[in-house]
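Module 6 notes. Inverse folding takes a fixed backbone as the condition and produces residue identities as the prediction. Think of it as a translation problem where the source language is geometry and the target language is the twenty amino acids. Below is one complete input and output pair. Work through it position by position during the lab.
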């Protein structure tokens, strides 16, 4: 369980980093950045479930994490389907075009 415990620590730190971005991501219109929350949570859930076989004390935490992962993944999936149906997801961004001179060309007014 030593290596598994080390991975559990890394997974918890990864989840903490992702969780620190939740406020920022929630202010955005739904898009692909929202899916960034899914991997750390799912990885921590899977690891905790696996470790709970050898460390039964983790069983309760594993169940809570699995339930949370299920809720988050369901919400992400429904929001993705809604975005695809309404045409608000996977839309090309508009990029402002700056007035520039051609590379190697003469400066204007020269």
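Target side of the pair, the amino acids:
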């Amino acid at each position: 369980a030593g290596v598994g415990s080390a991975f559990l620590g890394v997974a918890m730190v990864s989840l903490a980093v992702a969780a620190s971005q939740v406020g920022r991501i929630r202010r955005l219109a739904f898009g692909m950045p929202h899916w960034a929350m899914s991997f750390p949570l799912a990885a921590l859930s899977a690891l905790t479930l696996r470790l709970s076989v050898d460390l039964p004390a983790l069983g309760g935490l594993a169940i809570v994490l699995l339930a949370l992962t299920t809720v988050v993944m369901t919400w992400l999936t429904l929001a993705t389907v809604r975005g695809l149906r309404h045409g608000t997801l996977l839309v090309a961004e508009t990029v402002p075009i700056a007035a520039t001179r051609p590379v190697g060309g003469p400066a204007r007014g020269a």
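Reference fact for the lab report: The chain has a mean pLDDT of 84.
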